[in-house]
Amino acid sequence: MKFGIQTYSLTKSFKDIKAVNHLDIGIEKNTIFGLVGPDGAGKTTTIRMLCSLISPDSGTARIGDFDIIKESEKIKNCIGYMPQKFSLYGDLTVLENLKFYSEIYQIPSKISKTKIDELLAFSNLTQHADKLASQLSGGMKQKLALSCNLIHTPQYLFLDEPTIGVDPVARRELWKILFSLRNQGVTIFVSTPYMDEAERCDEIGLMYNGSIIEKDTPANIINNFQQHILCIYSDDNYSARDLVKTLEYVDDAYLFGEELHVVVEDYRFSEKLKQDFKEYEIEISSIHEIKPSLEDVFVHTIKNKSDDGDI
Ligand SMILES: Nc1ncnc2c1ncn2[C@@H]1O[C@H](COP(=O)(O)OP(=O)(O)OP(=O)(O)O)[C@@H](O)[C@H]1O
Ligand SMILES: [Mg+2]
Hints:
- The protein has helices at 43-50, 72-78, 94-104, 109-122, 138-148, 168-183, 195-198, 218-223, 237-245, 269-279, 294-308, and strands at 5-14, 17-23, 26-27, 32-36, 58-63, 66-67, 79-82, 156-160, 187-191, 203-208, 211-216, 228-234, 250-256, 259-264, 284-290.
- By secondary structure, it is α/β, with parallel strands linked by helices.
- It folds into two domains: 5-215, Rossmann fold, CATH 3.40.50.300; 226-291, Lrp/AsnC effector binding domain/regulation of amino acid metabolism (RAM) domain (Alpha-Beta Plaits), CATH 3.30.70.
- A six-stranded mixed β-sheet has the order 7-8-9-4-10-11, sandwiched between helices. Strands 1, 2, 3, 5 and 6 form a five-stranded antiparallel β-sheet that branches.
- Helix 3 crosses helix 4 (109-122).
- The chain is elongated, with a radius of gyration of 23 Å.
- It starts with a strand and ends with a helix.
- The relative contact order is 0.13.
């Protein structure tokens, strides 16, 4: 199958840190691919290589028909890239920022006017066109940043944590825009720390220590998880967690807001757990099995990898 984005053993180190380690992934056209992973996993480095902004030490990748090393100029024309900290010009208005970017991309002025009107309407910024960018809310700033990156109608869009610091309502609005771009044929590669956003992607890759350790649809990732999650409520979650971590039939335990999540091979261990809590005089108000969330799967998968020290 011919993918829209394909990497071939893509590798990049910074001194002794292997930021991206022999990455081989294929991403279908017209999909939203979400790259998730803890701080320092290698997400930004991957995106910067795919956008031809830094060169790999070895390996390569193709975006559409173009090779990121041999055809970097062509890559730049077919992609939009929104870095983690995208710079808008705060002392220019919304409209002036868009005009500025259309000049950078050398869009003929006739086309540029129509495109800018379209993007303003698309991102709901028309009535804010004359506001200074510095005076926009966080969500509006991100929508403007995204619009600036869409001015040349890219077929591939790379977004590095585009919704950091954006309130939930604005985040949802930004995602609506991404869905509509995908439906227009754009292939989107987005990194995000938010699991609710990961769930909205067509496919996700979990990155850890420079490698993708899991890649599938959100539903398959959850369904393929073999273990069981027991959810426990107690007045003293910390003591409950410390106890369960010492039990040999418990694979993992971590706090999840008000809940304690315990990972076990078999849901019937809940009976054993109840007895152990009784024996150690820890009061619990309820214990029941829950369907794992993406976050459960990722927390556990990453913990397993770091315990094994296998990557
Ligand atoms: N220019 C650089 N010089 C030295 N080390 C770097 C450089 N850029 C990245 N690194 C290191 O490479 C690793 C991967 O970094 P990268 O920024 O790609 O991670 P990330 O997944 O984007 O993290 P975050 O979620 O914090 O943005 C980290 O250990 C980081 O410290
Ligand atoms: Mg990053």
